[in-house]
Amino acid sequence: MILAFQRPTSLARRFATSRPMGLRRLQHSELDDTPIQYLEGIDRNHEPFRIAYRYLAPAETSGESGTVTIVFLNGLLSAMSGAKSRSLQQHAAANGVGCLRFDYRGHGNSSGDFVDCTMHDWMEDAETMLDVANPPNAKEEAKVVLVGSSLGAWIAVNLALKRPGSIAGIVGIGSAFDFTRHTFDNLTTEEKAVLSQREDGANPAVDISSPYLDDPYPFSQALWESGKSYLLSSRRASKEISLSCPVRLLHGSEDKVIHSSLVMEAAEALRTKHHCNDITLKVVEGGDHRLSRPEDIELLLDTVGSILK
After folding, report:
1. Is the distance from CB of 179 to CB of 206 less than 8 angstroms?
2. Which among 29, 125, 174, 309 could bridge 289 via Cys, Cβ 3.0 to 4.6 Å?
């Protein structure tokens, strides 16, 4: 099944690379196709943080076409070493395309405890990585294709709404739009009461089970509250903020985590509130939430390739 709202779009593909201002780059040698690097900074609470990432620079080109960089955004409690992100980088390398993948705070090799992290932190991490692929002080305007898995798709859309001029396209995989709202709605009355407690300095949490995790993960009050700032379903319509880049959503028919109807709801909100008229939702027969079968990854690469043309 495909839900489509399409409008022809021309993509200017100019990209540049340089070091973002105000952050210090560290090198970490590791046996992999690209080394882990770190960016260090100070968060909104004046605490130091460190983001781990791997960056494959795009091939040098000339002329109007410029260069291309893909930024991969992981799912919740996933890391940049997964099969989809590695496949994207291999595909990028074979086609002279840049690829940047990273771990949010509280994930993988980045700093922070998961229970203390919020959507504000992860949005900030994504925006920081966007500035690596598309530095604000670059001589040429740069554009990036965002590929987001689960939570990463939600972050990608919010990032594109915040920085629309920087994004050439979005591909969402098992898109967990508004996941904090849906998670809270599915809690028991007792669990909702725990997250609704108000006590200075406290950040109560409840354990959430996932078929893709060995152990439950803590869903905190801070994470739930922060998610309200990024809900697509409750965003006000805006004539000033439009999402004109192509958006391609891939969703498994056997996804037991996010029902396709929730993705359709978010897609309709983007179309009606933010003028996103080039958006498609493809339901992949037999696919689960991760969409990591060989045929799923082949579809992902083909979908990314269609945006890069």
Report:
1. no
2. 174
Query: Strand runs (DSSP E) across 88-128, as ranges?
Result: 98-102
Tracing tokens 């083909």 back to the chain, one arrives at 302
pLDDT tens for residues 37-62? 999 988 878 889 999 999 998 887 53
Which three-class secondary structure state does DSSP give residue 190?
helix
Classify 96 in phi/psi space as left (phi over 0), alpha (psi -120 to 50) or beta. Answer: left
- List the Cα angle 275/102/283 in 5-degree steps: 45
> What letter would DSSP give residue 257?
S
Distance CA 221, CA 282 (A): 33
- Global pTM? 0.87
For residue 188, with 0-12 CB atoms within 10 Å meaning exposed, 13-18 middle and 19 or more buried, which class applies?
exposed
Query: What CA–CA distance (Å, rounded) separates 309 from 306?
Result: 5
Angle at 232 between CA 259 and CA 76, to 5 degrees: 60
Exposure string over 246-262, b if 16+ CB within 10 A, otherwise e: bbbbbbbeebebbebeb
> What is the CA 84 to chain-centroid distance, rounded?
13
pLDDT digit string, tens, across residues 244-295: 899 999 999 999 999 999 999 999 999 998 889 999 999 999 999 999 999 9
Assigned token pair, 259: 């029902």
Q: Cβ(167)–Cβ(252) under 8 Å?
A: no
Distance CA 254, CA 171 (A): 19
Kind of pairing between the strands at 205-208 and 167-173 = unpaired
Contact 58, 70 (CB under 8 A): no
